[in-house]
Amino acid sequence: MTAIIHPDAGTDRVGEQARYNRARRVRGLSDRSIAWLFVAPTIALLLAINIFPLIWMIRLSFTSLNLSMSYLPTRFVGLDNYSDILTDEDVWARLQTTASFVICSVALQVVIGFGLALLINRQFRTHSFWTTIILLPMMLSPAVVGNFWTLLFQPQIGPFNYVVGLLTGIPPSSFSMTGEVALAPWTIVLVDTWMWSPYVMLICLAGLRSIPDYIYEAAEVDRASSLRQFWSITLPMVMPFLMLAVLFRAIENFKMFDMVNLLTSGGPGSTTELVSITLKRAAFEKWRTGYSSALAIILFVTVFGAANIYVKVLNRVKQR
Amino acid sequence: MTVAAKSTAHSVVEASPRGKAFAGAIVTLYAVIAILPLLWIAATAFKSQSDAIAYPPKVIFQPTLEGYVNLFTVRTRQTREFIGNLPPATTWYDRLVRQHDMVIAGPSKVVPRFINSLVIGFGSTFLAVLLGTLAAYAFSRFRIPLADDLLFFILSTRMMPPVAVAIPIYLMYRQLNLTDTKIGMILLYTAVNVSLAVWLLKGFIDEIPREYEEAALVDGYTRLQALRKVVLPQAVTGIAATAIFCLIFSWNEYAFAVLLTSGDAQTMPPFIPFIIGEGGQDWPAVAAATTLFVIPIVLFTILLRRHLLRGITFGAVRK
After folding, report:
1. Which sequence spans correspond to the domains of chain B?
2. Neighbouring-strand partners of residue B63
3. Helix, strand or coil for residue A164?
């Protein structure tokens, strides 16, 4: 047996000992206390800014508090706010609008994003440059995006209507993308798709690149057609990634406020009034704090519940 | 010989040249169409008021800096004689404004709003990354009871719709006199960003081999020294990427800003839509503000290219 002995080992004993002693002293902080010391500030901040307000909001949701009429005594109303909301047809209509928006926009983003990912994965020359260009919209501020698309959608002066006019022959000033009941829901879907298809694309691309080449090589040996390869290799292997993208997009779009608020602010009428906009109106325009707290809780439970179910499904897909 | 022959044969994994050309054409077409709205805005910033609202929309126009001048100034309309009696314009922007029978009355609010965006953005990013690094290190290296539950709790705070979060925050801030203050916004954005920071940084720190620190500990370093001298230098890229993601979030955030600020702490996103000129939105000025606001994001996106995937999936997908 050979041991590697450091040449200075004998002479440096004293120094070693001193260093070790000093280390021990400073080490007074055990790993355990360091762990708590490091985690505590984050948890404390989240308790103060997220959890405490949440608990406060749950309490408020059982009251009649209205900030525009704060001279009225705040009464405890039990579950009245909740039953008001759940029996209100308008709220259900807003939830339906939101659901349609989420489903249409996410579906379009999946088709476009996955399609782009498949094409980019062919690694043509300059693919990395164009990928970066394609990714830009999703990095922008949704509010600023909503705002500048209102310029692009102006019936007279906007380039969008003009181009549509050139392509279809419809007079550009005869329709308004943000002002017509029939078009406005599609307008918010369109802008959201423009902004977020790259997101799905990027995640799908990671999925495609995670498939090892040898699987395709084996399929080729077995003379599987390329359609067959797509259905039985590419799609199942990308599926967990795709579902992750869908989960993230669906949650984000369920919460959607900024882009739509600036693009249509819920109009015309209430055709694009997503539930976040309803909530904002109840809380910050009508100042019905008790009522809007209850609505906020309902939304939170919905997102949370849906996300949990989805994550379970996702894990099952991953295991396969 | 068969191996060599195979390498020159058509690869099953790589697309054929025709397939590549087709893919390239479609992707390029999509990219060009997708980028056009942004280019249109950048161009509108250099249009005159009348060119910006011309029909049909103008692609070729005489560029002018009017939009930028209007963005940074407040102007009043005056009579020709009044302007004639003024001392001659000394600067190019004075001259530009006077051509339209206007006089510059003072600076606009855009600079304070821009500074707010910077202060709140950098303040919240610094705090979130600081707290996030400590927590991520602890989650990565120590046994913490219920670690998975805590991590999920940290993430779940981000699932709340911002408008829903804003309701109790508004009430709380009113009590604490934090409404429309920079410090209030910094705390709020830190709380939102810290969840991202913890999740991303935990991923980055997990990738640094423990052996490095253990060697340092054996050498007599304390935990904190090992963190500072061994782990942090290794994690620097990850920390920078995380910081940029936090900065982008704070920079772009609108819902909290519009609901909780009105003046002193207002950032750019709620401000830009309200840049108005005579009779409606001053589109060249709005476009100028949008351009200036978006340029940093474009640069960051290019810088972040390699870490983008991690950032947008909370570290769930790495490459």
Report:
1. 33-108+275-296, 111-269
2. none
3. helix
Which chain A residues have a beta carbon less than 8 Å from that of B308? 135, 202
DSSP-assigned beta bridge partners for residue B106: B74
Q: For B14, which DSSP code?
A: S
Q: Could B27 and A124 be called an inter-chain contact, meaning their C-beta atoms sit closer than 8 Å?
A: yes
| CB < 8 Å to A209, chain B | 319
Distance, in Å, from the CA atom of B246 to the CA atom of A221, rounded to the nearest integer, reads 48
List the structure tokens of B229. 């001298």
CATH class as words, domain B111-269: mainly alpha
Max Cα distance, chain A (Å): 93
Q: How is residue A262 written in tokens?
A: 């600036």
Cβ atoms A306, A299 nearer than 8 A: no
Instruction: State the pLDDT at residue B319.
Output: 62
Give the number of beta-carbon pairs within 8 Å between A and B: 287
A237 touches chain B (CB under 8 A): no
Give the ipTM of the model, two decimals please.
0.87
Chain centroid, CA A319 distance in Å:
24
Contact between residue A95 and residue A301 where contact means Cβ atoms under 8 Å apart: no
Which 8-state DSSP code applies to residue B56?
S
Q: Which uninterrupted H or E stretch holds A203?
A: helix A184-209
Nearest-neighbour CA in chain A from B103: distance (Å): 27
Distance from CA of B85 to the nearest CA of A (A): 37
Would the pTM count as exceeding 0.90?
no
Kindly list the distances between the CA atom of residue B263 and the CA atoms of A80, B110, B180, B182, B249, in Å, as whole numbers in the listed order: 37, 11, 7, 10, 20
Cross-chain residue pair B162–A257, CB shorter than 8 Å: yes
CATH of domain A80-319: 1.10.3720.10
Which chain B residues are closer than 8 Å to A202 by Cβ?
A: 308-309, 312
B6-44 per-position pLDDT tens digit: 444 445 567 788 888 999 999 999 999 999 999 999 999
> B252 vs A144: CB contact, 8 Å cut-off?
yes
**With 60 as the cut, is the pLDDT of residue A6 above it?**
no
Q: How far B54 CA sits from the closest chain A CA (Å)?
A: 6
Domain spans, chain A:
80-319
* Measured distance CA(A52)–CA(B169) in Å, rounded: 10
For residue A1, the model assigns a pLDDT of 35
What lies within 8 Å, CB to CB, of A93 at 6+ separation is A270
Which of B37, B171, B281 shows the shortest C-beta gap to A152?
B37
Q: What single-letter DSSP state applies at residue A94?
A: H
Identify the bridge partners of residue B75 per DSSP, sorted by sequence position.
B104
